[in-house]
Amino acid sequence: MRPLDELLTRNPVFARFGAAGRAQLAQRALRREYAKDEAMAQHGQVWPYLLLVAAGSIAGCKESREGRSLIVMTLEPGDTFWGLAFFREEAPMPVRLEARAPSTLYLWSRDLLEPLLLQNAPALWELCRLQAGRMEWASGMLEGLAFLPVAGRLARLLLSRFERAGSDRLPRDLTLDEMAAWAGTTREMACRTLYRLADQGLIGLSRNELTLQDKAGLRQMAERAL
Fold first, then answer.
1. Are 217 and 129 within one domain?
2. d(CA 79, CA 58)
3. What is the rounded distance in angstroms from the CA atom of residue 127 to the CA atom of residue 121?
4. Burial degree of 143 (CB within 10 A; 0-12, 13-18, 19+)
5. How far apart (Å, rounded) are the C-alpha atoms in residues 153 and 160?
6. Last residue of a domain, one of 146, 175, 190
7. Cα distance between residue 162 and residue 184, in whole Å
8. If residue 213 lies in a helix (H) or strand (E), which one and from where to where?
9. What is the pLDDT of residue 225?
10. CB neighbours of 222 closer than 8 A, spacing ≥ 6?
């Protein structure tokens, strides 16, 4: 896990505070440890914090009307996220935040950061840029959920994981339930779709790993409705 001062220096918002400002922020950060599957914020909760992921992986989950858990985003080390109440008083969380692996977070409350941001225009501008990027990403995600079938959404998930790993091989560290949550479907449908992608020669399946066999074909599957 990287030291907090390094994480702050690499972060586009906190980097704008300068060395002295980052040292002050590091001293006043709330460090929190979470076990796998432990929630740090619930849907509907008023949660006025900005977080920085130091280690692990955090998922933003939303329950469907059918009771399925849909993962709408993930946060990795170095990523920043905020509750709506960080910007709008008493606004409830639109998702549940939970740890997908043992995770370490640093938190800053709105009461602490608001006066510092108002005094630091470059940092505030970078935070606005992050918000704009998050809105753009959310728009694409919603479009995908509305128009892409399960196969396309699952192909998108696999592509993103292969690209993040920088390898044509991945350990099978996602359960079918987790894949179903990503694709917004059932465990059974996720399983059938995964084998369908293998039958079409897009991926290889074994008990312990996935292999990328046809990147162009998998990308085409991700980009069109079937």
1. no
2. 10
3. 10
4. exposed
5. 11
6. 146
7. 20
8. none
9. 43
10. 148, 152, 153, 155, 156, 159
- In a shared domain, residues 67 and 173: no
Amino acid residing at 76 = E
| Segment holding 201, helix H or strand E | none
Whether residue 221 has pLDDT greater than 50 = yes
Q: Write the DSSP assignment of 14-57 as a string of letters.
A: GGGGHHHHHHHHHHH-EEEEE-TT-EEE-TT-B--EEEEEEES-
* Two tokens, residue 130: 């992050």
Domain that holds residue 117: 4-146
Which has the closest alpha carbon to 59: 145, 155, 218, 179? 179
Residues 92, 11 within the same domain: yes
- How far apart are the C-alpha atoms of 21 and 61, rounded to whole Å? 33
Give how many domains the chain has, as a whole number. Answer: 2
pTM summary value: 0.67
Alpha helical stretches, state H, the chain: 4-10, 18-28, 110-118, 121-147, 150-165, 176-183, 187-199, 215-223
Task: Name the least confident of 63-77, 80-94, 122-136, 187-201.
Answer: 63-77
The predicted-structure confidence for 22-54, as pLDDT tens digits, reads as follows: 999 999 999 999 999 999 999 999 999 999 999
Q: Look at residues 188, 198, 22, 7 and name the one whose alpha carbon lies nearest to residue 104.
A: 7
From the list 203, 226, 182, the residue with the least C-alpha distance to 73 is 182
Residue 209 tokens, joined: 């790993």
197 shares its domain with 129: no
